[in-house]
Design goal:
alpha/beta; 3 helices; two-stranded parallel sheet
Length: about 100
């Protein structure tokens, strides 16, 4: 699996650690890790520290997560974003939808 998920039950935060590729090839794993739960977590951390490649389906997965987590009320932080990925996320307007760190 190219995604590792850790749920901190004390803070109800789900952390997703992605592998080198964040693209359609991880769609099923992403869905099972964070969207498969009946009840969304209170907050989410998406760690892109190892991601070297991201495509438009990754942006779609992030939007699905945001919707699942409560839309405008969602607390989602995207962390360890390198400059190239940060540029992609900014061009797509994701810096207004997610907290980028």
């Amino acid at each position: 699996m190219s995604i590792t998920a850790h749920h901190d039950s004390e803070t109800d935060c789900l952390t997703l650690q992605l592998g080198e590729r964040f693209d359609f090839s991880v769609h099923r794993d992403f869905h099972e890790a964070c969207l498969g739960a009946v009840r969304p977590a209170r907050s989410y951390v998406v760690d892109l520290g190892e991601v070297a490649r991201m495509d438009s389906s990754a942006l779609g997965m992030l939007l699905l997560l945001r919707e699942h987590a409560g839309g405008d009320r969602a607390e989602i932080r995207i962390v360890n974003v390198d400059s190239a990925l940060r540029g992609t996320l900014r061009v797509a307007g994701f810096d207004r939808l997610f907290a980028l760190h």
